[in-house]
Amino acid sequence: MDNSLKEKGMRLVFLLAACASIIAVALICIFIFGNGVPAIHEIGFVRFLTGVNWEPSKDVYEILPMIIGSIYVTAGAIIIGVPVGILCATFMARFCNDRLHRLLKPAIDLLAGIPSIVYGFFGLTDFKRISVLKPIVGNFDLLVIDNFLLEQAVFITDAVAVSWKIQGNCRIQKASH
């Protein structure tokens, strides 16, 4: 089979896959807005955003506590996750010996390849059962999951940046152990 024909065939496969993805996202948006807009219109947009009750059994949908909770969890994840991610990336790029680097790098890449929805599902199902701090700190488990996701993003981004900086600058040498 000719390489040009294979190339055209694969382009068609990828085009169809991309179109299917776009159509799926569009249908999801249509469904969400089709059902959500009339409900928000009935409740009132301001009341929907500023109300403090969420009782679907009584047709009460107000999301302020969810918005505030998301802000708290995100802020906590940033406060904890960014420094940890930067320090880990710096360690891996600057101080980590080659043997440990060969062990850690594939593990981090593997964790980065797992979609965030998988971590979220794990957090909502399994982590809630093992969270012993729940009575003390409330939704601590959500903070842990957000931190895990954020640390991956920061770590990978910084690892690439720090490695590039170290490799590009001849005056900085990797520490040997």
Question: What's a concise summary of this model?
Answer:
With 177 residues, this protein is an all-alpha fold. The chain has helices at 3-43, 45-50, 64-95, 98-113, 116-130, 134-137, 140-168; strands spanning 54-55, 60-61. A hairpin with a 4-residue loop joins strand 1 and strand 2 (60-61).
Q: What keywords describe this structure?
A:
about 180 residues; mainly alpha; two-stranded antiparallel sheet
Structural class determined from secondary elements: mainly alpha
Question: Main β-sheet, in a few words?
Answer: 2 strands, antiparallel
Radius of gyration: 23 Å
Strand order of the largest sheet: 1-2
What order do the helices and strands follow? HHEEHHHHH
What percentage of residues falls in helices of 4 or more residues?
over 70%
What do the pLDDT scores average to? 75
Show unreliable segments: 169-177
Shape: flat
- What is the total tally of β strands? 2
Question: Can you count the helices?
Answer: 7
- Beta-strand proportion: under 5%
